[in-house]
Amino acid sequence: MLSRFKPTWMIGDIYSISPQFLLDHNINCVLTDLDNTLVPWNSKNGSRALHDWLAENKKFGIKVIVVSNNSHKRIQKAVQDYELPFVPRAMKPLTIGIRQALKQFHLKKRNTVMIGDQLMTDVVAANSCGVRSILVKPLVRDDAWNTTINRYFEKIVWNKLSKKYPDLHWK
Ligand SMILES: [Mg+2]
What's the pTM? Predict the structure, then answer.
């Protein structure tokens, strides 16, 4: 039961995840959450760090696709400068969005990773799909109101997880 919430890896932020790390684990496609993973939830625009990270992945042939619970409009606004493909209304923790991305972009589960800042949505959806996952810390500390509720439960789950899996720690 608790294993549903267990991320494969935990890495401080998405920009610290190098193409080499991904390739070393046979990953050639990244599905990423949008808010507080790729960009701050309250920001419309990306950053230099995001620009560089995307360029670096492109150089190594790693595909990046946004899989977000947010609306088409919000995602479009956030990624328009980067020509990123995306799946809106992914309904994480359900597997709908991830499955759609796998199908639409002809991806293999074993070569794909889901990156996100929430155990309750991103990690659970990835685990339910049999896709590996990377938990990152949220880019900004405060959250949208609906995320605040998830964070409350996340804290409880995290306490149990860290007891059961003492090897689980931030890289
Ligand atoms: Mg998020």
Answer: 0.95
